[in-house]
RNA sequence: GACCUGGUAGCUCAGUUGGUAGAGCACCUCCCUUUUAAGGAGGUGGUCCUGGGUUCGAGCCCCAGCCAGGUCACCA
């Protein structure tokens, strides 16, 4: 492995620490007495008291016999004051002069014991009496500095590096950590809301023989012992409804779903959806539940129901308007498409500038009209209701209009945040709807839809009237944390692998280094300079030429080796 | 999948018509006992994403590729 100069220095420091009898990676528990946030937010209670802290050293300002450093623990950052005569003495200044000033680096993890005080300029600090090395850091961190005006300098901002090395991102970019803390607050808030109502959190299979509950391309894998294909789930709907059949009144699951489709700033191949099913409820009830839930989530995570999303301030305060989808299309296109057949709908689409083709049925056309002409208008939370039957195969027919279904999507900031319905529980109707979907997909859709016979069998035993909802958790977190990209709310978004550098053996490195300073060179000179045996030499030079790092050329003046 | 933009030191970025690869921070040496983007003096550090090509000469121009970001398409 090729080490940078900075890495070599740190490895040398590591060695010197060991020579001084200091274990750079000690095994012992390090007992802290408090956290940085406790101290900085309750200075009066801590002033003059002794504390023990542990954390990462994020910066260091050395001023001869005294220094300041910034210590960062899981709760925050604070300054520590390190004085030669406090952690060592004039007669034996090793701990300060050598260990602290020379052998420690930014990024090292240390423990300190000392007294809380305020400096002349008023900064809360700890005067260190004892310093313990807890873990030596061998790679230099990016140096992010914030000036007196709060302006950040040299921010570690390259998206690729931040996502590939999220640990570095988390160390140096405090706001990133905040996003993920908020993410957990959001899911905790939802769990609390449901648990208080007695809803049961459950787990259902991720590996499924039939990927159902949505129209999406699945990932496929293979089970060796069963010698059969298995799919990673694209939704958990059909399993949760089986549990309602089984007699649970309300079940929910935070589920990682997987869809083998395009990736962009709002789509990751694996993502999280919270699905909830409650027996004896309908979609009207679900709307009331949803607005109550989201208002609570906003307050629990942000302290207020008003949330800034990009350039908009969005209010999650309940209630939210209910707009039937056909009404929305009438408002935003001027066309009343209620009851229209495929041909007339296509005319409308063409008139408003939407391209149509033969594979599009009534449902798809209405979906296009809404998606293109209406969706982006709904910035404030709005329930779009009563979708056409054709685009909702798992939804109960509308109680007053058999062309429609009892379904709503919740739109926020022009995007779908949740999708819910009065669940279809008529097993015969359900089978027909699945078959209709199959016909549709035969029309040209490449997402094969499977009929889950066991799911229909379950419905045949009888499922109570039930309302269900799926809430996109990543999208919800994006809204609540004002992030425009899903990658910002996933710790480890999917990335293509980094290209592997060609690894050289030790012998190859030796020869390569000689070549670097002297190329081309006579083959025999290179061989003798390398000091390798005949066999090793042969293996090494063949390795280098195979990897196209060097080449051997037969010329009039002899055999030469040169770098390529 | 198409198009646009980018990839240069540990980090953030300059880099002239194609002519010895730069700055700030970090790092190393030295000075400095309440500083704070600490300061002062000196110094080290490079696979210019990869591979070809053009050229006396390529970070720069051409071709192909890799990775990322963005826009669109596809997709809920």
Condensed summary:
The protein has 564 residues and is an alpha+beta fold.
Key structural traits:
single chain; 19 helices; RNA-binding; 564 residues; alpha+beta; five-stranded mixed β-barrel; 23 strands
Give a structural overview.
With 564 residues, the protein is of the alpha+beta class. It is 36% helix and 24% strand. The protein has 19 helices and 23 strands. Strands 8-12-13-20-19-18-17-16 form an 8-stranded mixed beta sheet, with helices on both faces. A hairpin with a 2-residue loop joins β2 (66-73) and β3. The two termini are 20 Å apart.
Mean of residue pLDDT? 88
Can you count the helices?
19
How are the strands of the biggest sheet laid out side by side? 8-12-13-20-19-18-17-16
Helix content: 25-40%
Percentage of residues in strands: 15-25%
**What structural category arises from helix and sheet content?**
alpha+beta
Topology:
Elements (H helix, E strand, L loop, with lengths): L4 H15 L16 H6 L1 H4 L3 E14 L2 E8 L2 E8 H4 L6 H10 L5 E10 L5 E12 L9 E2 L5 E2 L5 H6 L1 H7 L1 H23 L3 E2 L5 E2 L11 E4 L4 E5 L4 H9 L4 E9 L11 E10 L3 H20 L3 E4 L2 E4 L6 E3 H9 L8 H10 L10 H12 L8 E4 L21 E6 L2 E8 L4 H16 L10 H9 L4 E7 H9 L24 H12 L3 E2 H8 L3 H13 L3 E6 L2 E6 L1
Parallel strand pairs: 3-5, 8-12, 16-17
Antiparallel strand pairs: 1-2, 1-4, 2-3, 4-5, 6-7, 9-11, 10-11, 12-13, 13-20, 14-15, 17-18, 18-19, 19-20, 21-23, 22-23
Helix pairs in contact: 7-8, 8-10, 8-16, 9-15, 11-13, 12-13, 14-15, 17-18, 17-19
This protein binds one RNA strand of 76 nucleotides through helix 1, strand 1, strand 2, strand 3 and strand 6.
